[in-house]
């Protein structure tokens, strides 16, 4: 088994900066805070309906997340369902009383603990037993703790202390939430997984709910905000699966077809192909071939100049440039082509694969200690004409690519007439 170390780009339907998964939940949080006073003044009948919505929304998020193998978000949604149920069933009387005070204290300590579990446990497929465990462990533990308190009322007096300030979190609960949410945020920036951003905001919405529980309708509004945030994350994931290539992370051919529907005359289309890829596959194996595809995709994605790169199929890639400056586009493509041609690909056993990017970079500095290979790409570039369709232009780009292959490979041929 062979492996190649490189940094693969994170892409979905569109390339997004790291902070993108934080934007919509932040907007929803601000919106939730602003509408709480308005919601609390609505009619009793509407309030009754609104109080049921979080259950349906969070249940929908749970099912959708499980279908999409986002077990961390499924676990978060289930956890919120149980928290909301506990609030609606047990915390509607003064918290100075033993029973609601004990349930309140339980939530203030256990929800942060559940968030840490969800942030730490790895994402697994729901077809695996471990994947179901990731989704269920925190909700089941919380549900079991709530059940114990319901069945043994005497524990309200001795098992769990109550908050000294019944309308806000105790010091223990406050610092537990702060520590857990900061930990979740740190895990998101380290692991760069959108589901961990979802767990972070579940912590923020839960904290707002419990810390200002005395505000009418706060739990309903905050749970709805958290549910919409998780639902949006699941929808983005579904669109990413639809329009991105699983192996390389690039946009796929379906996304290219959608993009071609809005192209205008003057836009630039490019076809690119890895030279002698079949020989590389036959010589070094399909595992190495897959890693080369990932590497080339990572380098091609650095094009800039308002360019988008797509995996067309096999070892072929396509570009779309909305920049009409042909000289700058050709200069950019030449730079990417040269970077690929000069890249030393180290071939080694998977047991030698570095554990992180830092050790991988250090390993690559000493290329003499391992066998390396190189690969090149050829490209064909055309500009969309007034009297042709994008599909016809793409065929002309393919013809230019074929001309580049006949010209010796590792070059670019273009036609802008």
Fold and architecture overview:
It contains 15 helices and eight strands. It is of the alpha+beta class and 417 residues long. It has two domains: 228 residues, no CATH class; 163 residues, 2-Layer Sandwich (Alpha-Beta Plaits), CATH 3.30.70. It has a five-stranded mixed sheet, sandwiched between helices. The protein has a three-stranded antiparallel sheet with strand order 1-5-6, with helices on one face. The chain is elongated. The chain starts with a strand and ends with a strand. The N terminus is likely disordered.
Describe the structure concisely for a colleague.
The chain is of the alpha+beta class and 417 residues long. It has helices at residues 20-40, 44-67, 71-90, 98-120, 129-151, 155-158, 171-191, 194-211, 218-243, 253-260, 277-284, 286-300, 326-342, 357-365, 390-406, and strands spanning 2-3, 268-274, 307-313, 316-321, 345-349, 371-373, 377-383, 412-415.
What is the overall shape? elongated
Mean pLDDT: 84
- Using only C-alpha atoms, the radius of gyration works out to 27 Å
Q: Tell how many strands the DSSP assignment holds.
A: 8
Strand order across the largest sheet: 3-4-2-7-8
Number of domains: 2
Tally of helical runs: 15
Biggest sheet statistics: 5 strands, mixed
Which structural class matches the secondary elements?
alpha+beta
Helicity level: 55-70%
Strand residue percentage = 5-15%
Helix and strand layout, with pairings?
Elements: E1 2-3, H1 20-40, H2 44-67, H3 71-90, H4 98-120, H5 129-151, H6 155-158, H7 171-191, H8 194-211, H9 218-243, H10 253-260, E2 268-274, H11 277-284, H12 286-300, E3 307-313, E4 316-321, H13 326-342, E5 345-349, H14 357-365, E6 371-373, E7 377-383, H15 390-406, E8 412-415
Parallel strand pairs: 7-8
Antiparallel strand pairs: 1-5, 2-4, 2-7, 3-4, 5-6
Helix pairs in contact: 1-8, 1-9, 2-3, 2-9, 3-4, 3-5, 3-8, 3-9, 4-5, 4-7, 4-8, 7-8, 8-9, 11-12
């Amino acid at each position: 088994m062979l492996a190649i170390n490189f940094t693969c780009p994170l892409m979905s339907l569109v390339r997004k900066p790291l902070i993108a998964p934080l934007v919509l939940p932040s907007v929803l949080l601000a919106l939730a805070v602003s509408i709480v006073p308005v919601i609390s003044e609505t009619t009793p009948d509407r309030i009754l309906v609104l109080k049921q919505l979080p259950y349906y929304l969070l249940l929908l998020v749970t099912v959708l997340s499980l279908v999409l193998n986002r077990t961390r978000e499924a676990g978060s949604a289930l956890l919120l369902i149980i928290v909301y149920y506990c609030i609606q069933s047990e915390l509607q009387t003064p918290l100075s009383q033993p029973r609601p005070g004990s349930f309140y204290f339980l939530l203030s300590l256990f929800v942060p603990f559940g968030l840490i579990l969800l942030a730490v446990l790895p994402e697994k497929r729901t077809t695996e037993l471990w994947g179901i465990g990731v989704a269920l462990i925190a909700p089941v533990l919380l549900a079991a703790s709530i059940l114990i308190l319901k069945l043994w009322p005497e524990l309200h007096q001795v098992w769990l202390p109550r908050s000294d300030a019944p309308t806000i979190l105790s010091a223990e609960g406050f610092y537990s939430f702060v520590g857990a949410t900061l930990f979740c945020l740190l895990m998101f920036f380290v692991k760069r997984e959108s589901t961990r951003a979802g767990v972070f905001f579940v912590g923020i919405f839960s904290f707002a709910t419990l810390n200002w529980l005395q505000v009418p309708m706060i739990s309903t509004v905050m749970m709805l905000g958290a549910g919409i945030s998780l639902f949006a994350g699941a929808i983005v994931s579904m669109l990413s699966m639809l329009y991105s290539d699983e192996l390389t992370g690039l946009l796929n051919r379906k996304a290219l077809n959608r993009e071609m529907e809005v192209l205008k005359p003057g836009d630039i289309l490019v076809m690119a192909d890895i030279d002698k890829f079949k020989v590389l596959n036959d010589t070094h194996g399909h595992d190495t071939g897959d890693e080369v595809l990932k590497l080339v995709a990572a380098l091609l994605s650095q094009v800039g100049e308002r360019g988008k790169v797509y995996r067309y199929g096999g070892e072929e890639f396509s570009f779309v440039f909305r920049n009409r400056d042909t000289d700058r586009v050709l200069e950019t493509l030449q730079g990417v082509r040269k970077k690929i041609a000069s890249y030393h690909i180290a071939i080694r056993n998977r047991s030698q694969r570095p554990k992180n990017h830092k050790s991988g970079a250090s390993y690559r500095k000493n290329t003499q200690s391992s066998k390396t290979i190189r690969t090149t790409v050829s490209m064909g570039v055309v500009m969309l004409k007034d009297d042709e369709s994008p599909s016809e232009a793409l065929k002309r780009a393919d013809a230019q690519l074929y001309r580049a292959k006949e010209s010796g490979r590792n070059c670019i041929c273009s036609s802008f007439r």
